[in-house]
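Section 5.1 Outputs to date
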Amino acid sequence: QVQLVESGGGLVQPGGSLRLSCAASGGLFSFYAMGWYRQAPGMQRELVARITTGGNTNYEDSVKGRFTISRDNAKRTVYLQMNSLKPEDTAVYYCNLTPPGIDWGQGTQVTVSS
């Protein structure tokens, strides 16, 4: 069973950057397509970025050109580089398989505010 631990969130001003990390333990990490999801207060959780086992990526329209997902299979880690952050990016960010298939981690809070 794969377990996930997200980190790297924080408070950043609009236009700033953050790099999120998701470390996986257990299971066959390199065999799974992975995604970063986010959930804003009062909103449903949404998929914002996905990366396949072969490294192909897809993004939700509102983050295209600003977010970059990547993975390091040797380190069993998936990353989300977030640039040009906007207040509407404020949310708790989670990683999981795509589609989600294991228990959610605690997530990491990203707050974009001046």
